Inverse folding.
């Protein structure tokens, strides 16, 4: 008797929450933004009809496939119109987001105030629609109740990390409490949780308890480094330099690197590529005062950063905690040496490729940095010691593999 292989049943429609991407219009994308962007791009190319949900200051917008494609195109070009009067009044301090909401209202399929969100979704979405939330934004009880009013709807949430609960001292005021409520809703309401790593799945189970863990799948995030563009020039040009990439917030531990450059003066420049974040007054004050050979480059695009990385002595990643850690994965994919804190998720995704150094040992970090900064000869970057693993032949996780694991379930 032969074996019958059944193909996964595709849902009649998918509804992707795009609230976070719209809120970030015009800004340099963070790692979470990149994930939501990757889902938008991929789901538009799937045969299943795609809809988008956006929470605005004036209520909810429902986009059809054409509206989702319009958003993707605008995100690519960063071409946002002047906001209309409603958007200007609602988003006085955020004109780019106001422009994004303006253009989406022009192409929206439907709109509703919160009290009428359920009727709007039932009117336009078929039974069995799958809702995806990839940005930890807008997974509120109002949205959940509206979605549950659709017959046989399923809810899937991508969980990036549990850092707000594990490292509350590095969060904005109220963030830990808001995240705790979000995670409780995930545990109670999600039909599927997409975890970006086994570490994240373990952390979720630890916080929710064994009896409250929804069905979960681990799917590493894809890494598609951009083609290098033109590297920004400055005092570092032609000299050894390192790149640190990410929002300047306490969790990223820029303070360690500033201490090293200020007190131990390694023979290299430090390029800080990332926007200033929050709760980091001492680091901001040190940057404003100036440290020799330390340079802030907050406005570079992906291609410029890739160009800087490929010409650098390495990526420095002293972060205290990460849900995934895209910068080291992208650097390794570009064959750039990585010096990083020994985070469990980096060992899961990258194994022995990075050079690991405890994030509290500044003398070890300084020693490694000095060794990596040795002048390159014949295209070879100096390495700290002969025992170190090489990243030759490293194949980064792909989005195709990610979606192969995820889309069979949703």
């Amino acid at each position: 008797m032969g074996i019958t292989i059944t193909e996964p049943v595709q849902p009649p429609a998918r509804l992707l929450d795009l609230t976070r991407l719209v809120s970030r219009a015009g800004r340099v994308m963070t790692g979470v933004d990149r994930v939501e962007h990757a889902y938008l791009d991929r789901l538009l190319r799937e045969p299943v009809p795609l809809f988008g949900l956006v929470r605005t200051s004036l209520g909810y917008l429902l986009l059809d496939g054409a509206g989702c494609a319009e958003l993707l195109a605008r995100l690519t070009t960063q071409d946002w119109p002047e906001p209309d009067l409603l958007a200007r009044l609602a988003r006085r301090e955020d004109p780019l987001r106001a422009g994004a909401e303006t253009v989406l209202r022009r192409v929206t399929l439907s709109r509703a105030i919160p009290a009428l969100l359920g009727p709007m979704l039932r009117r336009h979405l078929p039974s069995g629609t799958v809702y995806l939330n990839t940005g930890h934004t807008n997974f509120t009880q109002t949205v959940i109740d509206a979605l549950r009013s659709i017959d046989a709807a399923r809810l899937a949430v991508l969980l990036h990390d549990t850092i707000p609960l594990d490292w509350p001292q590095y969060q904005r005021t109220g963030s830990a409490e808001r995240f705790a409520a979000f995670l409780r809703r995930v545990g109670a309401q999600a039909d599927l949780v997409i975890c970006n790593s086994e570490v994240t799945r373990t952390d979720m189970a630890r916080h929710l308890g064994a009896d409250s863990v929804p069905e979960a799948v681990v799917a590493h995030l894809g890494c598609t480094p951009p083609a290098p563009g033109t590297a920004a020039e400055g005092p570092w040009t032609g000299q050894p330099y390192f790149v640190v990439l990410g929002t300047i917030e306490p969790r990223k531990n820029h303070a360690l690197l500033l201490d090293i450059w200020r007190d131990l003066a390694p023979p290299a420049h430090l390029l800080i590529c990332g926007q200033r974040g929050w709760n980091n007054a001492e680091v901001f004050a040190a940057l404003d005062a100036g440290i020799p050979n330390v340079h802030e480059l907050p406005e570079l695009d992906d291609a410029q950063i890739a160009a800087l990385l490929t010409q650098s002595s390495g990526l420095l990643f002293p972060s205290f905690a990460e849900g995934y850690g895209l910068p080291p994965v992208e650097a390794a994919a570009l064959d750039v040496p990585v010096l990083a804190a020994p985070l469990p998720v980096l060992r899961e995704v990258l194994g022995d490729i990075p050079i690991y150094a405890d994030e509290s040992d500044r003398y070890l970090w300084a020693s490694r940095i000095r060794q990596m900064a040795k002048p390159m000869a014949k295209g070879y970057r100096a390495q700290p010691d002969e025992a170190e693993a090489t990243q030759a032949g490293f194949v980064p996780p792909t989005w195709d593999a990610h979606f192969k694991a995820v889309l069979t379930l949703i």
